[in-house]
Amino acid sequence: MSAPLLAVRGVKTFYGKIIALKGVDVDVNPGEIVTMIGANGAGKSTLMMTIFGAPQAREGTIAYDGRDITKLPSHEIARLGIAQSPEGRRIFPRMTVYENLQMGAAVRDFAHFEEDLETICQLFPRVRERLQQRGGTLSGGEQQMVAIARALMARPKLLLLDEPSLGLAPLIVKQIFEAIRELNRTQGLTVFLVEQNAFHALKLAHRGYVMVNGVITMSGTGKNLLADPQVRAAYLEGGRH
Questions:
Q1: Where is the ABC transporter domain (predicted)?
Q2: Is 114 a domain residue?
Q3: Which residues contact 220 (CB under 8 A, 6 or more apart)?
Q4: Per-residue pLDDT tens digits for 115-159
Q5: Is 102 within the bounds of a domain?
Q6: What is the band of 111 on the pLDDT scale with cuts at 50, 70, 90?
Q7: Is the separation of the CB atoms in 225 and 36 below 8 Å?
């Protein structure tokens, strides 16, 4: 087995004196889709933000592609080939969709901009239709597509996706998860996904982790976690959207 692309070891993250992550270990191997499920407030988004350098881990290490990135600032982490589509989308509302995508590409360079833009527009046809619209005028689903597209414009080796289905209609959720699967299948993109929608996330993922109160309580293949009675009782009953 090749070395993990992302290796999180014993990570503890604090907000002031409150501990949010209590010694987390996670591996994401090259070419995998790995998901982390858990209830709201379990610490999933904190882990995503810690990997991306804000806040920084107080204890433990985060290694990416064999390099320790635990104490690097976010902009340096982005340059190494990690892109993040954060919770709440956070696109630039006053910029057009096209300008938002330019901001994503600016992390690297613009040498492949037109080519990458075409790939994105094939993946998300709605984005092509909205290129000249301001981000703030888009629907929630369209904004989520733009947030993912903006992250992809940086040509990442590892894509961090934080709650991509949050607050979206089931049809849009399906489109977004299909796009993630397609990127992984055709481009070998490695994806680490944090998601409350456990059913969709575990169906998509090669492997998954369950987080409860800042601690990982279970891990396994997506298939095995989907079938696990504890996981089903806690996260899947009535949750098949």
A1: 6-238
A2: yes
A3: 207, 208, 228
A4: 999 999 999 999 999 999 999 999 999 999 999 999 999 999 999
A5: yes
A6: confident
A7: no
Half-sphere exposure of 198 (CA within 13 A, CB side): 25
Tell me the angle at which helices 113-123 and 140-152 cross, rounded to the nearest 10 degrees.
140
How would residue 161 be classed by pLDDT, with cut points 50, 70 and 90?
very high
Q: What is the DSSP letter of 39?
A: -
- How many angstroms from the chain centroid is the CA of residue 40? 16
Q: Is 59 helix (H, G, I), strand (E, B) or coil?
A: strand
d(CA 106, CA 49): 21
Q: How many domains does the chain have?
A: 1
Residue 108, domain member (yes or no):
yes
The residue whose two tokens read 């998601």 is 195
For 150, the domain range is 96-155
> What is the pTM assigned to this prediction?
0.92
Q: Are strands 18-28 and 6-15 parallel, antiparallel or unpaired?
A: antiparallel
Place of tokens 């709201």: 40
